[in-house]
């Protein structure tokens, strides 16, 4: 039996494109072979919607899903967020953990995105933090939903690799209590990233705080952090974009902590 | 007199949203106060289209434009690429220079984007390269047009700070002849970025080659480069996105060259 866009299970899954429905159900959508593979490996797939063609092409993935529902092209397009969803959309259980649980593992590198609204930026930071070996990425305050379709896609599977945490803004104290120095990024920071690297400061377990490009970090986080750090600008640019700044900071820490 | 979307000068300017018309005319559009300010400082503005409100708000910019044409909201919206263009769109002369001219200045850091199609990615690399102190950014082969609206916006003014070059793909020899070591980025590179930094290799004048996320660098560039370099992956991610990888590589060079 092939489901159509009117089949109740498809209609219900499609609602997960809205944050309210994700929040209420504790589920989200992951689309495309890469994300579906990572979701399956994490054991969070509830149901895999796939076209007949995609099941044939990705038989290995279909074989590992607890439930596979065949959908027609229209139903799949309605579930997917992209123009070319490659035939696969999985309903997944949300994977985030509590701040306490994430910090109990004593991660040596943590990224905090505070009040970041752009899902593509947040997903890219998630991917970069994972690549740099961070144990956790914390979405603090009124940040984008990590299960937003664009964020899931930009994370390129990293949503399933690192501990994702959603918390209120006041994260500095618990981070410090978990043995992490707290470094706030700011274009006007008193400390220069390269100098901190030279002085060995980055060898310590570190939580990096990143704010939105438009507004920077909230004052409470800037003031509460151990240091305010700027990425040096060697040329004519006024600043780096968020994803680039996060890449430079997180990789400086990763390099120092090797 | 207020121009409307049917005024011939507005109609002609709007055509610059198309690559063909940009290529033919040697002009492009820059929108929003930041880009317009940088374009004015570079002396490349031919005509500034602005709403009456924007002229009042940005009187300093209007005062420095050779020609200011007042347009109604509809005409401005038609010229702009974004939903909130903030009332200003400038017609500019293209700023790119020849490879020979750019290399004659003996830059110590150069970024090459080869066959990169995504304008947002290309613009972000331009901005990051500028921040890292690169002297030139080279768009090689069948790459995105640097004057694409999205690229101009993502560059956040850096299009006007660094030497932008458009060339065919065979850039390795001229780069090397200009005293630059040529480092090709690749997920499978034999050399690890951190090891190169430790060994002092990054202190030398360097041209970094970046390929598209989907296809990587063309074989000719990979094979022709002095080294193939991978950014180390410390966590579960398969790779970094292009902008993040470029940020890590360019800043590693900037740090080593201080």
From TrEMBL, chains A, B:
InterPro entries: Alpha/beta_knot_MTases, MRM3-like_sub_bind, Ribosomal_eL30-like_sf, rRNA_Methyltransferase, SpoU_MeTrfase, SpoU_subst-bd, tRNA_m1G_MTases_N. CDD domains: SpoU-like_rRNA-MTase. Pfam families: MRM3-like_sub_bind, SpoU_methylase. One of its GO terms (molecular function) is methyltransferase activity. One of its GO terms (biological process) is methylation. Coiled coil: none annotated. This is RNA methyltransferase. It comes from Paractinoplanes lichenicola.
């Amino acid at each position: 039996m092939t489901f159509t866009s009117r089949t109740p299970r498809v209609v219900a899954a499609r609602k997960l494109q809205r944050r309210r429905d994700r929040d209420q159900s504790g589920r989200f959508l992951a689309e495309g072979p890469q994300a579906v593979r990572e979701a399956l490996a994490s054991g969070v797939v509830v149901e895999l919607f796939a076209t007949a063609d995609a099941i044939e092409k990705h038989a290995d993935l279909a074989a590992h899903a607890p439930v596979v529902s065949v959908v027609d092209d229209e139903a799949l397009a309605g579930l997917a967020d992209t123009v070319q969803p490659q035939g696969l959309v999985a309903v997944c259980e949300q994977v985030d953990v509590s701040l306490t649980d994430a910090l109990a593992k004593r991660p040596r590198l943590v990224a905090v995105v505070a009040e970041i609204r752009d899902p593509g930026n947040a997903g890219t930071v998630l991917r970069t933090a994972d690549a740099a070996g961070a144990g956790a990425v914390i979405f603090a305050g009124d940040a984008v939903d990590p299960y937003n379709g664009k964020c899931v896609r930009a994370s390129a599977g990293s949503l399933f690799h690192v501990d994702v945490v959603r918390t209120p803004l006041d994260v500095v104290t618990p981070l410090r209590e978990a043995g992490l120095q707290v470094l706030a990024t700011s274009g006007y920071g008193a400390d220069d990233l390269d100098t901190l690297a030279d002085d060995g400061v980055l060898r310590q377990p570190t939580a990096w705080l990143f704010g939105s490009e438009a507004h920077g970090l909230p004052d409470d986080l800037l003031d509460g952090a151990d240091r305010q750090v700027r990425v040096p600008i060697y040329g004519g640019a006024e600043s780096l974009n968020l994803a680039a700044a996060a890449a430079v900071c997180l990789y400086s820490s990763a390099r120092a902590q090797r």
